[in-house]
Amino acid sequence: MQIDIRQSCNAAYTKTLDTEGLRKEFVVEQIFVADQITMTYSHVDRLVFGGIMPVAAVVTLPDLGKTYGTSFFLERREMGVINIGGDGVIVVDGVEYAIAAKEALYIGKGSKDLSFKSKSAANPAKFYYNSTPAHAAYPTKKITQEMASPQTMGDVKNSNRRTINKYIVPGVVDSCQLVMGMTVLEEGSMWNTMPCHTHERRMEVYFYFNLQADAAVFHLMGEPTETRHVVMRNEQAVISPSWSIHSGVGTQAYTFIWGMCGENQTFPDMDHVAMTTLK
Questions:
Q1: How far apart are CA 277 and CA 95, in angstroms?
Q2: Low-confidence ranges of the chain (pLDDT < 70)
Q3: What is the pLDDT, as a whole number, of residue 264?
Q4: DSSP H or E segment with residue 25
Q5: Spatial CA neighbour of 38 closest among 25, 26, 52
Q6: Contact assessment for residue 164 and residue 153, using Cβ atoms and an 8 Å cutoff
Q7: pLDDT by residue (tens digit) across 185-221?
Q8: Cα–Cα distance between 165 and 148 in angstroms, integer?
Q9: Phi, psi of 40 (to 5 degrees)
Q10: What is the CATH number of the domain that holds 218?
Q11: Structural domains in the chain (count)
Q12: What distances in angstroms separate CA 101 from CA 104, 107, 180, one per listed residue?
């Protein structure tokens, strides 16, 4: 398994990048490959993310200890997985967890043997995951969409009516650093996270999906007074450093998974940016 390593980019360097440069540093264009694990290792807060799509075989997490300087991948890490495909099963140290579409599994630090399988090859599971460093171990736990503290926000007038499902947040699941959830936009709504914000204490990764082949999301990034954009297609992810805004508008409604890592887990701890500030 090849690991895509992305180094940190500061704001000054990012200003010099053209479209290709921005995509090379921040965008991951392919998350799911049949019967494989994709893995991107971001130096920003050491967050690891990717996809696992078992089709014809059971997919087992390989020995990554040498790569991460540990005995096994989750020796000093935790992991969150959200299924966006068909029904699947995740096996953690011999314990099976049935994970249906829009269900999640938090996997605690110290879990060693992980395997992933689909109930049907015709409709395979698509497990999107985030992993962050962890200094404490918490129990592995399944989270249904009903448990995910759903919160509906926005309105039709501003084209941002959406429901935020908080899968891995305090009060739902105990975790060390990882915070993770899924935002679903309603038909006719295209804007996410606008007015926008930054949070110096946490980085974030957005994973966009439920987009038609000819649809796109224009993801906004950069400092509030030095904004840039990248065009995102279905099932692509983008890294957002702590100094960057992270917002977007689509040519249709869509869904995205957000994952955060940093110094705290306080969900509303953000620095709001006034619309009049954006340039």
A1: 51
A2: none
A3: 84
A4: helix 19-26
A5: 52
A6: yes
A7: 999 999 999 999 999 989 999 999 999 999 999 999 9
A8: 5
A9: -115, 130
A10: 2.60.120.10
A11: 1
A12: 8, 17, 16
**Residue 249: how many other CB atoms lie within 10 Å:** 18
DSSP element (H, E) containing 14: helix 11-14
Give the span between the Cα atoms of 204 and 178, in whole angstroms: 10
* Contact between 25 and 238 (Cβ < 8 Å): no
Q: Tell me how far apart the alpha carbons of residues 221 and 263 are, in angstroms, rounded to a whole number.
A: 21
Question: How many angstroms separate the CA atoms of 250 and 252, rounded?
Answer: 5
Distance between CA atoms of residues 53 and 34, nearest Å: 5
Q: What are phi and psi of 93, to 5 degrees?
A: 50, 45
Closest of 124, 128, 82, 125 to residue 103, by C-alpha: 82
| DSSP tag of 56 | S
What is the residue range of 58's domain? 3-277
CA 169, CA 198: separation in Å to the nearest integer? 19
- What is the CA 74 to chain-centroid distance, rounded? 18
Strand pairing report for 39-42 and 3-6 = parallel
Q: Specify the DSSP element, H or E, that contains 67.
A: helix 65-68
What is the C-alpha to C-alpha distance for residues 175 and 189, in angstroms, rounded to an integer? Answer: 32
Q: What pLDDT is recorded for position 266? A: 84
Nearest-CA neighbor of 228 among 80, 11, 5, 42? Answer: 11
* C-alpha of 60 from chain center: 21
Which residue has 């305090």 as its token pair?
170
- With H, G, I as helix, E, B as strand and everything else as coil, classify residue 181: strand
Give the chain's count of helices (H) and strands (E): 3, 24
Distance CA 160, CA 163 (A): 10
